[in-house]
Amino acid sequence: TFQPRIFSGIQPSGGLTLGNYLGALKRFVEKQEEGIETIYCLVDMHAITVWQDPAKLRQQTREGAAAFIAAGIDPKRSILFNQSQVSAHAELAWIFNCVARMGWMSRMTQWKDKTAGKNAEAASLGLFAYPALMAADILAYHATMVPVGEDQKQHLELTRDIAIKFNNDYGVDFFPVVEPLIEGAATRVMSLRDGTRKMSKSDPSDQSRINLTDDAETIAAKIRKAKTDPDPLPATVEGLKDRPEARNLVNIYSALSGQSVEAVISEFAGAQFGTFKPRLVDLAVAALSPITNEMNRLMADPAEIDRILGDGADRADAIARPILEQVYDITGM
Ligand code: ADP
Ligand code: NA
Q1: Which InterPro entries match (predicted)?
Q2: For the ranges 55-59, 152-156, 202-206, which has the lowest average pLDDT?
Q3: 12, 58, 148, 269 — which has fewest CB within 10 A?
Q4: What's the CA-to-centroid distance between 239 and ligand 1, angstroms?
Q5: Cα 217–60–304 angle (5° rounding)?
Q6: Whole-prediction pTM value?
């Protein structure tokens, strides 16, 4: 049996979005408050699976750390660090590259989406192998639970497959079979440009995303411009079924307000988006502006952020290194 331990990560591949906040960061804080051991990581080695400008990557890693802290992660109670500073991730990933099968990787929908219509032969080998590194991130800590958005579900199933295959191949009960925690109204926040693609920091073609660093006017303008259909809000939750844009805005409202989707619908039944959107703006600004302000304050002292990340890396390494030593022993190395 494994003690309950939470691990999750965010790529410093751009500024964090409202999707990252509602689907991940806000829930990371809730888990910390539940008193479970929580380990959170800026996964810079995942970010470089597609090209990253070095100076920007360094800046975005610090900004990501500032966002974690500003959102409520306490670097004393949680471990907060940068992936590349703990070499166990890369070392265990290599072993998992030898456990995972090519066929498993080629069935990952994110790999297929990211290479769709492009020359897959020109994609980096790292982009293909990314889920094995993600499995290493989690299993290097014997983490048992992983809070993530819906988009990571398939990768977590692969993490389970890798743990099971490793245990079977070597005849051990060494790695836990992790449980994905995909919960709440905002497990998949969609783009405000159309309701069919997820809001993502790593999609440079979509400028409609709400960033944690946006000021109140920018947030208001983006929500005002959010695509909707011409109908008023429905009287029942079922009425959102074939209305992806409306459903997305209601889900965001629900996640920001802490009200159920049913409660939001009963409050706004029959209302026009011209009435609903300003209320959504108020909620979004109230949630994000304290985070933005605190991020700006923290970013004024990058050396302090580096110190916090360095301390987190030492504490992460103290957990991961002994586990990795056992893996080397199990595998005969
Ligand atoms: P991105 O796709 O924005 O680059 P990451 O791959 O770094 O984000 O994911 C970081 C975390 O944020 C993951 O747990 C992921 O599931 C979650 N996440 C990303 N986008 C969304 C979204 N639009 N809605 C909900 N959660 C999201
Ligand atoms: Na992603």
Answers
A1: aa-tRNA-synth_I_CS, aa-tRNA-synth_Ic, Rossmann-like_a/b/a_fold, Trp-tRNA-ligase, Trp-tRNA-ligase_bac-type, Trp-tRNA_synthetase
A2: 202-206
A3: 269
A4: 27
A5: 100
A6: 0.96
